[in-house]
Specification:
alpha+beta, Arc Repressor Mutant, subunit A, nine-stranded mixed sheet, three-stranded antiparallel sheet, 15 helices
Length: 480
């Protein structure tokens, strides 16, 4: 029997705040163990939490970016369990009244736009981190109490590759919105996966297997590929799958059962008595809405539509938003936005990388690129000469016109002068001339190159080609 996977993801994202969720301790990575802690985040007796307003705003902003419904009331609950990295023996989270409901993530996948629906987005606190040594274990509570979003998807994903594409799209949205830095190496994004398989084309769901705490998107993809294959093999052998939680062993490349699935009521959720519910006012929501930005996919589609850019160029500006903003400032006044994009992507970006500069370090005005494009399109500069001018612009900050005038780089378009250069090239290279007239059209490029050398690169290439072709079609003296 053929089976198909059904996948849902629970993505945990640390928010970009300066302090933790309930106290003033720094939300910062890399400090010595247990130095960013206080009685509140250590869960000592007699302390009271105070909600971080920035975290509340970023949570609602995420909901707006992902087209969620923002309920009029959200509350915090205690999720009770004992684990060494949870200092209070309960986790503050949002159970039945989260900060955002519904919504979706749209992304490109295999040449089309896919939409994965979201169930909810809720805000909770992160836990500490356990370390295991030869003879003992330790816990670093620096991370305990860091504001953590959980973004829960519907089971709309149908392959490991699709899950990988979804996660990357979600990460890009959160970075664009300033919600999180999403630095995987710092543990800012982690993922739990729910996966089952069912007979292809059926509507029911198989036994749900949860894969816990995957800390890389490639790990999610690899774990899913293995787990989907494992489940199908079990069913094809006549076995049964039991709802359970498994862990991914990255070294062995297998999933291993940890436990059968606990029911939600085992956590004994109840509203936290120390925290008031969040009931956002219209004025507060209006302030949060000011942070809504254009999403990466919408930006790519707009660049392709408004500036007639190919997908690869538009994606370059999505991947580097600052460079995209710079391009757009120039392209709004350009007759040929594609030519502007070529200079920004191919030339400017390369020189910035080589020099170690940022856009703020540039010495020339953005309109200099527009001026350079105009000189090329009017035939006053060849592309080769334009690159020399651009190098000077980058180094000195002078305008293209001033550089061309000073260095006498203007392209030669005078027909008589070009005719003379072409005659010299033809007379000096009878072999390629005969080759062309014998049908070897590639010889024309060699002859054009010789004309460019004679003109010191200043000849108009288009006119040179026209003149050479006309002269090569003329009858030779011996045939007249």
């Amino acid at each position: 029997m053929d089976y198909e996977p059904v996948i849902g993801l629970e993505t945990h994202v640390q928010l970009r705040t300066q302090s933790k969720m309930w106290c003033g301790c720094a939300n910062a990575f890399g400090a010595p163990p247990n130095t960013h802690v206080c009685p509140v985040c250590l869960g000592l007796p007699g302390v009271l939490p105070v909600a971080n307003d920035a975290a509340l705003r970023l949570t609602v902003l995420t909901g707006l970016l992902l087209r969620c419904e923002i309920p009029p009331r959200a509350k915090f609950d205690r999720k009770n369990y004992f684990y060494p990295d949870m200092p209070k023996n309960y986790q503050l989270t949002q159970y039945d009244q989260p900060s955002a409901m519904g919504g979706y993530v749209e992304f490109e996948f295999q040449g089309r736009i896919e939409r994965v629906r979201l169930t909810r987005i809720h805000l909770e606190e992160d836990v500490g981190k356990s370390f295991h040594f030869d003879r003992h274990s330790g816990v670093d509570f620096n991370r305990a109490g860091v504001p953590l979003l959980e973004i829960v998807s519907e089971p709309d994903l149908t392959s490991a590759e699709m899950a990988y594409a979804y996660l990357n799209a979600l990460k890009d949205i959160l970075i664009y919105g300033g919600v999180s830095d999403c630095d995987m190496e710092k543990g800012m994004v982690r993922c739990d996966v729910n996966v089952s398989v069912r007979p292809a084309g059926s509507r029911g769901l198989g036994a749900k297997i949860e894969l816990k705490n995957l800390n890389s998107f490639s790990g999610v993809r690899q774990a899913l590929e293995h787990e989907i294959s494992r489940q199908i093999k079990v069913l094809n052998r006549g076995g049964a799958l039991v709802q359970s939680t498994r862990r991914w062993d990255e070294v062995l490349g297998v999933t291993e059962e940890m436990r059968t699935k606990e029911d939600a009521h085992d956590y004994r959720y109840f509203p936290d008595p120390d925290l008031m519910p969040l009931e956002p006012t219209e004025a507060w929501l209006a302030e949060v809405r000011e942070g809504v930005v254009e999403l990466p996919l919408a930006r790519k589609q707009r660049f392709m539509h408004d500036y007639q850019l190919p997908a690869a160029d538009a994606q370059s500006f999505v991947d580097d938003p600052t460079l995209g903003d710079y391009f757009e400032r120039i392209a709004r006044g350009a007759a040929n936005a594609k030519a502007v994009a070529n200079w920004v992507i191919n030339d400017l970006r390369a020189r910035l990388a080589d020099s170690g500069w940022g856009l703020h370090d540039l010495k020339f005005e953005p309109r200099g690129i527009l001026e350079l494009v105009g000189l090329v399109e009017r035939g006053q500069l060849s592309h080769k000469l334009a690159q020399e001018v651009f190098a000077q612009m980058f180094r000195t900050g002078r305008s293209p016109a001033a550089i061309v005038k000073e260095r006498r780089l203007a392209q030669v378009s005078d027909t008589a002068a070009l005719e003379a250069f072409c005659d010299q090239a033809l007379a000096a290279h009878p072999g390629p001339v005969n080759d062309y007239r014998s049908g070897k059209t590639a010889a024309l490029n060699f002859l054009k190159g010789q004309v460019m050398k004679l003109s010191q690169g200043k000849a108009n290439p288009a006119l040179v080609g026209e003149i050479l072709e006309r002269k090569l079609r003329e009858p030779t003296p011996s045939s007249s």
